[in-house]
Design goal:
outer membrane lipoprotein receptor (LolB), chain A, alpha+beta, globular, 271 residues
Amino acid sequence: MKLTGILTTILTFLLISTSTLLAQPSPAQLADQISDRNMQRLANIETLFITVEPEGGGLIPATTTKYVKKTEGGRTWLEPEDEDYDTNTGLLSGVFDDQMPKLVRSASSVEREQLDGYSVYKIFVDDADLLNEMMDDDMEFAEDEVKNITIWIDSDELVARKVRFDQISDEGHEMIVEVIMSDYQNHSGLPIAHSIQFNIEGLDAQFTEEDRAEARRAMAELEEQLAQMPEAQRRMIEEQMKPQLERFEAMLESGEMGRMVLRVTDVRVNQ
């Protein structure tokens, strides 16, 4: 399962913080502040390269994506130079667009609370029509129905601390996806989160013991095929795939299919 679609638009805002909020805003006011601040933060940026890799190895290889600034109709945004999601960073494709302000504007509530020692605004969006309209833009994710999204934004720094969304698949599987952002660093005026943690509750339940057994058989067959290859070819493939295979095997044994941490390892601006 590829968690693109809604995650992509969520990460749009999660990677980019906005201005300090002096008073609790309405959804419309907050959406306007996000739009205005993002335009200001992009003033000195024309291109952006972001390299992401999984912590401790994993199923997603390290990937670098180039983003290019676009301006049209009063809008300013960054979009991947190559719009083929299969060759981009997937979860981080679309570092900036205008989808997060659209989500915030449709929020049914904005409340103040504490989260992990931070004063935050808790933004709740349950406009199912809007959420699934946005999700339908990505066919790979269209099979999952998003019921609601909650976003926690630091009330002082307007940095997203956490996002949670509840979804249900066509098969009736319910999942709760949490995305936790930390280690923000400033790049030419653009704060970018360098640690992105995903906790997916309910993902393990979608993998039966039969599914796990089939995955183990497939891994054993792959190891047999590698053993029969010429040494140079085997070494090359093992260097590329072994960390991912070991991580996947550990996830199968531990049941931690729903946890992953991505690290932003390199950011280059206007190069």
